[in-house]
Amino acid sequence: MIELRDVSKVYGKEGREVAALRNVSLRVAPGEVFGVLGQSGAGKSTLIRCINLLERPTSGEVRVDGRDMMALAPRELRLARQGIGMIFQHFNLFSSQTVAGNIAYPLEVAGWPRERIRERVRELLELVGLVDKALAYPAQLSGGQKQRVGIARALAPRPRLLLSDEATSALDPETTRSVLGLLRDINRQLGLTILLITHQMEVVKDICDSVAVLERGQLVEQGKVVQLLAQPGTRLHELCYAPLAARDWQVSPGGRLVEVTFRGESATQPVVTTMARRFGVDANLLEGSLERVAGVRMGRLLFELTGAPEAVEQALAFLREQGLAPEERAHV
Fold first, then answer.
1. Which of 10, 20, 35, 202 would disulfide-bridge 211, Cβ 3.0–4.6 Å?
2. Widest CA span of the chain, in angstroms?
3. What's the burial of 71, exposed, middle or buried (CB within 10 Å: 0-12/13-18/19+)?
4. By its UniProt entry, which Gene3D superfamilies does this protein fall under (predicted)?
């Protein structure tokens, strides 16, 4: 659905140039929720605006739904943008328009017949749960309700792609979960491709299928969220998970501190118990957590492993055979 090839964006004139993006290449598959994660100044907003050519890249290639966006004539580009919805951090609603009026606006611009507009607005109000707010004005809405209006407006022309520019950054945690749940429901019901940019790790873990990590305008890594989180040493793992507190524990002489990340079925199977019984080692659980990431169970355990050195090595090899990546932690 989206393919960027060596996209760079440079602002300023020669001698005072700032590179917001440097040779960024990524692919977003149809129907997936793809996150672009990065801190302020990483180039996230520039990247998302390059996709619909609100910002024209200095170099590189942008393809959306198979079309070379940079090769389109102005009229063709306007039509292509009708297939790309966009929602914003600060909602960008018209304060003088009702909820229904805000949702109808892009359809009026596109020249839809009045009756079709009314029908489409009704559909969207039901979809985002705001049927009772049709005649309210933005000033009468909560932040979460405003964002739902923004989502409905972006969906009005039936786009195949939805871009989200830090859409939950201005919301409290509970409202954020509600809006993310709505986006996931829309993704599943409509088969809509969603690309969202965020600096919030929880957003990536809650909703994204795949992710790209952007730092100082450069792509650091990209891949499936669950796979990257399950691999110690990836940048996403480092950003989302602080090392478990190995220094807080007293370890027996000869004991070894081991941290393991579990995912999918392994998060619910007695892998550590099986290991301990099979190789005659003791695994003393010190710390751990269990959560859902993109609908998949993931867990992290820190335990002390004691026993004969050869048996401990065999136990660690067993964990690796199970597709896990045990990491030894130094202790004080």
1. 35
2. 79
3. exposed
4. 3.30.70.260, P-loop containing nucleotide triphosphate hydrolases
CATH number of 2-224: 3.40.50.300
Please give the CATH architecture assigned to the domain spanning 242-329. 2-Layer Sandwich (3.30)
CA 309 to chain centre: 42
The helix-helix angle for 143-155 and 114-127 (nearest 10°) equals: 130
Distance (Å, whole) CA 63 – CA 116: 31
pLDDT tens digits, one per residue of 140-169: 999 999 999 999 999 999 999 999 998 888
Q: Which two tokens stand for residue 53?
A: 């050519």
pLDDT of residue 247: 58
- Contact (Cβ atoms closer than 8 angstroms) between residue 214 and residue 41: no
Give the C-alpha separation, 158 to 161, whole Å: 9
pLDDT tens digit string along 106-141? 999 989 999 999 999 999 999 999 999 999 999 999
* Per-residue pLDDT at 137: 96
* DSSP symbol at 89: T
DSSP conformation class of 70: G
Angstrom distance (rounded) from CA 117 to CA 121? 6
Per-residue pLDDT of 56-86, as tens digits, reads: 999 999 999 999 999 999 999 988 998 999 9
Report yes or no: 306 and 252 within 8 Å, Cβ to Cβ: yes
- Per-residue burial over 275-289, b = 16 or more CB atoms within 10 Å of its CB, e = otherwise: bbeebebebeebeee
